[in-house]
Amino acid sequence: MKTAMRAMLLRQQGQALEPAEIPVPTCEPHQVLIKVIACAVCRTDLHVCDGDLKEPVLPLVPGHEIVGEVVKLGSAVAQDLIGKIVGVPWLGQTCGECAFCRRGEENLCDHARFTGYHLNGGYAEYTVAHQHFVFEISGDPLHAAPLLCAGLIGYRSLRMTGTPQTLGIYGFGAAAHIICQVAVQRGVRVFAFTREGDVDTQTFSRQLGAEWAGAAGDQAPEVLDAAIIFAPVGELVIDALKAVRKGGRVVCAGIHMSDIPGFDYDLLWGERSICSVANLTRADGDEFFALLSQHPVTTHIVSYPLSAANQALEDLRHGRLQGAAVLLPQDPS
């Protein structure tokens, strides 16, 4: 087996990733070594690279939507995992002992470690992960990669809206394009809000089942039961509150958001509520992947070689993608 691998490293926040050759990681007793087949590019990666999320472990291999083949096992890992195709999500490890973990809220663990932030991720040919924090993956690895965060966070966000009949989605990127399909299959009427003038994305959302699409700030054709905000723009909270009915809920799905402007209490009154989504639990993953067996979705991807990770991040930053960017770390030669 190789002892060195290609990777894209973040050495300092606010700077471009650097191509590097680094040692293939070794497995601790409860870890598996994974040959990375595909790693999707998430907006959280941008927040890590730009410095919106503080104190990553540097130098860092980003990436937390990883699909690959288990090629080596730690000493405490069962042999039946070898050769399996697995997915590695954002949540990389928890303490299992704090009050949050004991309550089944491991997404809020005070001592959690996150893939591509505290732990090296998938912008590399190989990575390691704890055996209990991976999911077995079926289907095409490239199209499965965005499910590991965009899909999982989208699912947790959708679940937190309750049982809406009408749902607004603000920001129609990787997560939205997955969860729109899930919602529509459940009989939810989806209303998509995009950047102003982004006709292509509005058309894309309607192709995926959205009943209506317009620009953020436009008035929806009818009142909404709930809204999910995927775009990291605080002003959208005001737009969403204006759009939902009394008793409606606004779910902020991002890990980072610009400041929310002040607003009149009348917008919140009437038992409207705002909540955030923080990370994910392994139970979320189990539920989501079971759901997909009954309600399959199509992920729309744009693939890039590992060396083009910076270009993929810029395309994401500037809204040039429909669906998700996916890196292919293995050398095609």
Note the main sheet.
7 strands, mixed
Percent of residues in helices: 10-25%
Gyration radius, rounded? 20 Å
CATH architecture identity of the largest domain: Alpha-Beta Complex
- CATH superfamily of the largest domain, by name, is Medium-chain alcohol dehydrogenases, catalytic domain
In short:
Helices cover about 25% and strands about 25% of the residues. The chain has about 325 residues and is α/β, with parallel strands linked by helices.
Protein architecture, described:
Helix content is 25%, strand content 27%. The chain has 333 residues and is of the alpha/beta class. The chain folds into two domains: 174 residues, Quinone Oxidoreductase, Chain A, domain 1 (Alpha-Beta Complex); 126 residues, NAD(P)-binding Rossmann-like Domain (Rossmann fold), CATH 3.40.50.720. Strands 3, 4, 5, 8, 9, 16 and 17 form a seven-stranded mixed beta sheet that branches. The longest helix is centred in the C-terminal third of the chain and has 13 residues. The chain starts with a strand and ends in a 5-residue tail after the last strand.
